Amino acid sequence: VHSQVCIIFSDFGKMQNVCNLLTEKLGTSVTISPPHFYHTPEAVDTLRRQVCIAAVGNTRRKAQEVCRLFGQALGKPLLIREEETKEWGGHIDSHLPNSPDSLTLQERIQNATAYASCRVFAVFEIKGKENRRNKLL
C-alpha cells in the first residue's frame, strides 16, 4: 500500500523537524521528496509593505543627520511618496532551467528567495533648534 501526503509549511525549521522525525520513526519505508517553495500573495504584499516602511525610516534618519549638520531639527513629514518598487527572485521551481530534483536544498532556497527594493521621496519640515527649545518651555 502506497500513500502520498502533501504538507504545506510556512516555517522552514518546522518542515525540517517533521521530515527528520518521519525519517527517524519510519526509516526506509518513507520517501521525502524535495520541497517546492513558493510565496503566497499575502507574503509578497507583506514584503512590499516592510520594504516601503524601511525606506521611509531610512529617509527620515538621513534627513535627521543632515539637519544635525546644520544645527537644525527635523520636523514632521509634509509629503511622502513611493517612487519606485522593484522585486526580483522568488522563482517557482517549475520555471527553473534545471530539473528541481537536481538542485541542492541551498540552491532551491536561494532560487526561491524573494527580494524587493523601494525608493521613496519625502519632504520634511525643518525647525531651528532655538524655536524647538522655546516651544518646550
Give a topology summary.
Layout: H1 12-26, H2 41-69, E1 72-89, H3 105-112, E2 114-128, H4 129-136
Antiparallel strand pairs: 1-2
Description of the structure:
- With 137 residues, the protein is α+β, with helices and mostly antiparallel strands.
- The protein is built from four helices and two strands; from the N terminus they run ααβαβα.
- It has helices spanning 12-26, 41-69, 105-112, 129-136; strands at residues 72-89, 114-128.
- A two-stranded antiparallel sheet has the order 1-2.
- It is elongated and about 80 Å long.
Report how far apart the termini are: 81 Å
DSSP, total strands: 2
- Beta percentage is 15-25%
Using only C-alpha atoms, the radius of gyration works out to 24 Å
Concise account of the structure shown:
With 137 residues, this protein is α+β, with helices and mostly antiparallel strands. It has 4 helices and 2 strands; from the N terminus they run H-H-E-H-E-H.
Could you list some keywords that capture this structure?
receptor; about 140 residues; elongated; kinase activity; alpha+beta; about 25% strand; two-stranded antiparallel sheet; 2 strands; nucleus
